[in-house]
Every structure is written in structure tokens, then in C-alpha cells.
């Protein structure tokens, strides 16, 4: 992982994993509310990485079965490109993929129910090769993946090495092709045959011909890795097979004893290397298929959203970080942002004080950086965290992910604070505790009475309803009086006299600021009416508004 040194081959033994699994399942179910009593078969088209790294059978399926015992996961593992194509063809309710460029096309074409999908976790890629390392990659480019490809190509040109590519338009294959695009002469490269015209995707060769040292297997992640490990001389003359694989799959396959002659030769790209520190970061997203685009068979949207809510739940995200081991997990969670406090609340304050809290909001995905523009809501609890109330309006984070929040101490009761962020782009909601403030009892606080009258908008009148907007919770009463005119003769002159007779009196309670509808059963006759509105807030403050309107 960029910025970290990850051990290889650190696999939890089967007996220990069986002992840990109940603990992981408990963490997941604790992090989820009780699911509805429903049953569905959820069709999942997914990249093979999640299967080959052991996550699906080792954690995801048993944990989801514990959380949603009525559902069945019909989980199909293929390359990302195939998974997205299958979803478009009506074979999926949910897709789990790891090729951002292909996913953008899927979303732009309207196949995703949600506009961004959801981030769920990430891993990283490594380049592996023979323990003898005939291309000397570990010596010349241990943290330079592009230099590693160039070294392999140079050795391949001398019949001393081979590169085994999945070649299947999977997320791994797409990332590999983007990396070939960053290589330099004398290596000869050409647009990738399965790149769909993407100008950034390349593979070695020219004129549609691959060099003899470059091979496509069209196999899944683990199968491709094992093919490189066998490195059959009939298929790969000269031997010395290298390939690219996600770290979790390599660790699991090596830990199972299925390969013993391959080692990691390049990993954790240096910031100064081509492609930067994040070149080998491997992000995964989950999408519910849009039922408006795929109608036959119909998409089970409710079941798909249940699965996505599970994948992004705090419980499952915590379990992912410990699978198969906390020291070297196959995937790292990134469903919701990391919220840290740069200026925490003071330990104590007194009534009347204003406190300032500063927080930073960052993506957990290393390549994504700070979260810009996410609404950060300060919340306060006066009962030790049993309930929370919004404290002021949300503050959007700045481009550096910073947000400064303020709160006024108004009660002698100590307060606990936290910040909450909503669903935002591909990130899921989260909340982070900031700490508690003890209020000094040096004086008896004087309550500040609320003397502000509620505000009312100009109402609208239809024949069965009066609509008005109020700026706070209030009881709104309306008296509707119909105008009548008659002619009278006084002092020898005829005059028109106007009078009003109340024909409707209605009331409604607004639980919060917003539009209020006051309705009645029988329609008013067309004509001119005087509407008298009176809004009374919870503190007893009242405002009256009288307007003349026509009912048509």
C-alpha cells in the first residue's frame, strides 16, 4: 500500500481463521440494525479478486447471511469488463468492480441506479516474478512499477523473461495497460486490442502483433497467477514468468501452498516514480443496476440496496480491516471518510461561552485526498450520547477537507459533541465523536427568552386549501372570509358597501420550518376572500398576516 510496507504471505492459518470468524461476524451484526424479514436471490456480478483473495467465502457470504438470513447471494466472479457487460445484459442486480474508467462509462450510460455508486474498499497491485528474478526487477525497480515493466520487456526481448497478462479487460488488465502506456522507448507499444479506443491503454507490440514474450491468458486473478507460476516452457519459451496481481490474491494463493516459486519484485510505488505513489492503488465500487435501463428480467432494487447498505455498514467495514488478519488485510475499508479533529472542544466551559471546533475530512482511499464540499454537521448530546441534535447548520468542507464549526454553551448540563457527514458522491454517511465539555457551575444561568415572532410567506388560496410557508415549528390558524357587496342609499346617494363573512376556520401544526397546507372538504365558490393567518411558535410568540386573495 502506498506509504506503508506490507508483509507478504501473512495468511491466517485455517484453524485460527475459523476461530476468528465468529468474532468478525459479531462485529458485522453489531454494526447493522436488524434487517427486514425479506427474502431474495441477489444476483452479483463481481470481479474475481474478491473471490480469489478469499473475501467472498471467508467473510462476505457468512456475514451477510447472519445479517440478512432470508437473502441468498448468487455471486458470479468474472473480470470487471465482463461483469459490467453482464449487468447491462440483465444478469445482475449488483456489480462489484475495480476499473474506474470502465465504471465511469457504466455510470455515464445510465446503468447505475446511484449517480456515483459506492466506494466499498481498496487493495493494491504488486508485480511478481520468479524467485531468481532473471529481469533483476527487485534490484532496479523495487518501487517503480513502470521501470519494472521496462526491465521485464528488456529481458523478454533477450528471451530471458515472459510477461503473463490476464488480457480479459478486467480491472487488473485495464490498470496494467494504463501502466504500459507510461513506459518509454526503446520499448515498442501499441493501443490495446481490448481497450475500446481508450487512448491511455496500451500493450507491447505493433501492428496488432504481440512480442513473443507477452502473453494473454484470459483467466481470472488466481488462475492467471498460477499460470505464471507454472510457466510451462512449451507456452512460455525461456521461462522467467512475471505477472501483475492484487496483493490479497497473491498472499492467499501463496499461503495455501499453491505457488512457491514466485515473489513480489515491485510494490508500493515511490511518489517520484512515474505514475506517482498511487499508481498501484486498486479501488473497488459497488453499483445497483438501474431498473430503467434493464427491464428483462427486472432488477431487484430493494435487495440490491440492502446488499450495498451492508457492504458500507460500520460493522462490515471494520470486519474487512481485519480479514484475513489485521496486520495484512486483503482489502482496506474506504466506504466513508476519515474525520479527524484538529481543534477539539475544550474540556470545560461556562454558560455563554462560544466554542470552536475544527475538523478534517479525508478519503480513506489514498489516491483520493481530502473531501471537498461535503456538508459537515456538528451535533450535540445532552444525555451522554443517547440522542443527538443538530447544532447549527452544516458547514461544507473546503478544498483541503477542513471545516470549522461553532457552538454556544447554553446549559449547565455537560455536552458531548460529534460531527456527522451524509451520503456524498460515492461516500457513505458517518459520524465521529469529538469529545465532551463539562460546564462550570460558577453561576446560575439565566434562560434567554425567545421573543422572535415566526415569519409567514404570502399565502396561496385555492378552493379547498390555503398554503403558506412558516420559518419554524408553529401552529398556524387561518380564517377565510368571503367578500360580499350591496348597494345602500344614504342621504339621497347610492353607495356600495363591502363586508366579509367568515366561511372557513382551519388550523394545522408545522413540526418544522416549511410549507403548511390548511385544507377543508367542500370547495369555496369562486370570488374574493380575506385570509387572516396567525402563526404561534412553541414559545408563544405570534404573528398575524391579513391578505386579500381570489379563489378561482
Secondary structure blueprint with pairings:
Blueprint: H1 14-30, E1 41-46, H2 49-52, H3 55-67, E2 72-77, H4 80-88, E3 94-97, H5 100-108, E4 118-130, H6 137-140, H7 145-157, E5 162-165, H8 171-180, E6 189-191, E7 202-204, E8 214-216, H9 221-230, E9 241-246, H10 247-255, E10 262-266, E11 281-288, H11 301-311, H12 314-320, E12 332-333, E13 338-343, E14 348-349, E15 354-362, E16 375-381, E17 389-390, E18 395-396, E19 402-408, E20 415-421, E21 430-439, E22 460-461, E23 465-470, E24 474-490, E25 493-510, E26 514-519, E27 527-537, E28 542-551
Parallel strand pairs: 1-2, 1-3, 5-8, 5-9, 14-21
Antiparallel strand pairs: 3-11, 4-9, 4-10, 4-11, 4-12, 6-7, 13-15, 15-19, 16-17, 16-18, 16-20, 20-21, 22-23, 23-26, 24-25, 24-27, 27-28
Helix pairs in contact: 1-3, 1-12
Mean pLDDT: 91
* Molecular shape: elongated
Which stretches are low in confidence, meaning pLDDT under 50 for 5 or more residues running?
1-21
> Mind telling me which CATH architecture of the largest domain this is?
3-Layer(aba) Sandwich
Count of runs of 4 or more consecutive helical residues: 12
Strand-pairing-aware structural class: alpha+beta
- N-to-C span: 69 Å
- Under CATH, the topology of the largest domain is which? D-Maltodextrin-Binding Protein, domain 2
Query: Whole-number radius of gyration?
Result: 32 Å
The CATH superfamily name of the largest domain is: Periplasmic binding protein-like II
| CATH top level class name of the largest domain | Alpha Beta
- Summarize the biggest pleated sheet: 10 strands, mixed
| Number of E-type strands | 28
Which percent bin holds the helix content?
A: 10-25%
Give the amount of beta strand, in percent.
25-35%
Oligomer: single chain
Number of domains: 4
Amino acid at each position: 500500500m502506498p506509504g506503508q510496507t506490507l508483509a507478504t504471505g501473512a495468511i491466517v492459518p485455517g484453524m485460527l481463521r475459523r476461530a476468528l470468524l465468529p468474532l468478525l461476524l459479531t462485529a458485522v451484526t453489531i454494526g447493522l440494525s436488524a434487517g427486514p424479514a425479506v427474502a431474495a436471490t441477489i444476483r452479483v456480478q463481481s470481479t474475481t479478486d474478491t473471490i480469489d483473495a478469499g473475501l467472498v467465502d471467508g467473510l462476505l457470504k457468512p456475514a451477510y447471511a447472519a445479517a440478512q438470513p432470508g437473502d441468498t447471494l448468487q455471486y458470479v466472479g468474472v473480470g470487471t469488463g465482463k461483469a459490467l457487460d453482464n449487468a447491462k445484459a440483465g444478469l445482475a442486480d449488483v456489480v462489484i468492480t475495480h476499473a474506474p474508467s470502465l465504471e465511469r462509462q457504466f455510470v455515464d450510460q445510465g446503468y447505475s441506479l446511484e449517480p456515483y455508486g459506492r466506494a466499498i474498499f481498496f487493495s493494491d497491485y504488486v508485480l511478481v516474478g520468479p524467485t531468481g528474478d532473471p529481469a533483476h526487477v527487485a534490484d532496479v525497480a523495487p518501487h517503480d512499477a513502470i521501470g519494472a515493466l521496462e526491465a521485464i520487456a528488456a529481458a523478454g526481448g533477450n528471451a530471458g523473461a515472459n510477461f503473463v497478462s490476464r488480457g480479459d479487460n478486467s480491472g487488473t488488465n485495464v490498470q496494467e495497460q494504463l501502466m504500459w502506456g507510461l513506459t518509454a522507448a526503446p520499448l515498442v507499444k501499441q493501443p490495446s486490442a481490448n481497450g475500446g479506443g481508450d487512448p491511455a491503454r496500451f500493450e507491447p507490440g505493433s501492428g496488432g502483433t504481440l512480442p513473443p514474450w507477452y502473453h494473454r491468458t484470459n483467466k481470472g486473478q488466481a488462475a492467471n497467477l498460477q499460470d505464471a507460476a507454472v510457466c510451462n516452457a512449451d507456452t512460455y519459451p525461456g521461462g522467467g514468468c512475471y505477472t501483475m496481481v492484487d496483493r490479497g490474491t497473491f498472499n492467499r494463493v501463496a499461503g495455501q501452498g499453491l505457488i512457491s516459486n514466485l515473489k513480489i519484485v515491485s510494490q508500493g510505488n515511490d511518489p517520484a516514480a512515474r505514475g506517482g505513489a498511487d499508481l498501484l492503488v486498486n479501488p473497488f465500487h459497488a453499483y445497483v443496476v438501474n431498473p430503467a435501463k434493464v427491464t428483462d428480467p427486472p432488477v431487484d432494487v430493494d435487495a440490491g440496496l440492502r446488499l450495498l447498505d451492508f457492504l458500507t455498514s460500520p460493522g462490515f467495514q471494520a470486519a474487512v480491516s481485519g480479514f484475513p488478519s489485521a496486520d495484512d488485510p486483503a482489502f482496506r475499508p474506504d466506504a466513508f471518510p476519515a474525520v479527524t479533529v484538529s481543534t477539539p472542544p475544550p474540556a470545560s466551559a461556562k454558560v455563554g461561552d462560544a466554542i470552536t471546533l475544527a475538523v478534517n475530512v479525508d478519503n480513506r482511499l489514498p489516491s483520493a485526498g481530502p473531501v471537498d464540499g461535503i456538508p459537515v454537521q456538528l451535533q450535540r448530546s445532552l444525555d451522554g450520547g443517547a440522542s443527538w441534535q443538530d447544532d447549527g447548520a452544516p458547514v461544507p468542507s473546503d478544498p483541503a477537507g477542513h471545516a470549522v464549526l461553532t457552538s454556544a454553551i447554553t446549559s449547565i448540563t455537560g455536552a458531548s459533541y460529534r460531527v456527522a457527514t451524509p451520503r456524498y458522491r460515492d461516500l457513505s454517511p458517518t459520524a465521529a465523536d469529538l469529545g465532551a465539555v463539562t460546564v462550570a457551575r460558577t453561576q446560575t444561568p439565566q434562560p434567554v427568552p425567545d421573543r422572535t415572532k415566526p415569519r409567514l410567506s404570502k399565502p396561496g388560496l385555492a378552493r379547498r386549501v390555503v398554503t403558506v410557508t412558516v420559518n419554524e415549528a408553529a401552529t398556524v390558524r387561518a380564517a377565510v372570509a368571503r367578500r360580499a357587496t350591496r348597494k345602500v342609499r344614504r342621504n339621497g346617494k347610492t353607495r356600495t358597501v363591502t363586508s366579509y363573512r367568515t366561511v372557513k376556520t382551519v388550523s394545522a401544526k408545522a413540526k418544522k420550518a416549511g410549507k403548511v397546507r390548511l385544507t377543508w372538504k367542500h370547495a369555496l365558490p369562486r370570488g374574493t376572500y380575506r385570509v387572516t393567518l396567525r402563526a404561534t411558535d412553541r414559545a408563544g410568540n405570534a404573528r398575524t398576516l391579513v391578505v386579500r386573495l381570489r379563489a378561482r
